[in-house]
TrEMBL record:
It comes from Nitrosospira briensis. It is an enzyme of class 2 (transferase). This is Glucose-1-phosphate adenylyltransferase. Alpha-D-glucose 1-phosphate binds at residues 110, 175, 190-191, 208. It holds the Pfam family Hexapep_GlmU. It comes from the Bacteria. Residues 19-286 form the Nucleotidyl transferase domain. Pathway: Glycan biosynthesis; glycogen biosynthesis. HAMAP family: GlgC. Belongs to the bacterial/plant glucose-1-phosphate adenylyltransferase family. The record marks 71, 109 as: Could play a key role in the communication between the regulatory and the substrate sites. The gene is glgC.
Amino acid sequence: MKQEADLRFHSQITRNSIAMILAGGRGSRLRQLTDWRAKPAVPFGGKFRIIDFPLSNCVNSGIRRIGIATQYKSQSLISHIQHGWGFLDGRFHEFVELLPAQQRIEETWYQGTADAVYQNIDILRRHNPDYVLILGGDHVYKMDYSKLLAYHVEKSADMTVACIGIPVESASSFGIMSVNDDLRVTSFDEKPSAPSPMPGHPGLALGSMGIYVFNASFLFEQLILDHDERSSSHDFGHDLIPYLVPRHRVFAHRFADSCVNMVSGVPYWRDVGTIDAYWEANLDLTHVTPDLNLYDDEWPIWTHQEQLPPAKFVFDDDDRRGQALDSMVSGGCIISGSTVRRSLLFSNVQVRSYSSIEDSVVLPNVDIGRNVRLRRVVVDKHCVIPPGLMVGFDPEEDRKRFYVTEYGITLITPEMLGQKIHHVR
């Protein structure tokens, strides 16, 4: 009976909530992968885009009113949303609504994360929500937002911040907070140079995930106050949260309490904001038991899926065998007399004969010529890899044409190959 009551409680809260996904950032640490697309539109996991994860979390949690604030090079993102996220039914007040920066209130583009919400305050008010869920569009994770919302209500909070333990050595890239025994936030420091570790956990700091819940009327009031403050950069982490913590009821919510499909009890959340992190998170999916479960019927990740033929593997000669080992190969791919090892191939990749692909991530619509050898590379969409090319064996030689990370992962884009692409990417 208690479980049924909890479900009804969660359902009522989610129906009275609206989600706002902030998807306007470039994600410059992904280098040339974001030259033509915003970070939330970057492909991930063989068939998805990064933004599919917070969107799927919303739908699976019962939140069916979603706004997406876009700004930087958003055409690829807009096209993806239009093709893949039009299934919600407006007759039942369900929607995914694109909110591009359009100078609705003043003659400025979005100035910060808080300003992106402020500039759409009239749209949010029109929907008359009780609660507003603010999300980033650029992280990979599975989370039941209904549990976060229920926690917010139970705490009688004005604002709730989802949090996770971050290794201290990398915590300077996050908002770091301190909490009391009741998980009420007592301090918040955005991207501190010397992050304070959690009590009893010297190697970890308590980091904000950039996921916030507000009582709607409280949020609108605070956004207006922040907008009128000339010294503010109008950012949640830099300005709004540090202002609210000593004055209002701000609580932290542990991600482990709402994470879905935890493997070995460890919550999965990835900021795939660098080429190295992006490569590693994608290749993790090829493991026997990956940390991120994409095979869960109860919490599926939704996306736009083209109608493509199955992957095909042809030729079975000793020197010309089409095969993929410890790999993920998406629909429309043809592996023709070549070997793919420990790699992830997105849709419509063709690997021609006598080639070898190892420890690599190959994005959609790539044509790999004969006698090619690729190792530890990320290949962007629409690349045509010329016959005989070798990448990943001589970093100094690779740096003359491509981008090579400090950990030796090589990024290849059409422009680096001297190829001009006219498709939306």
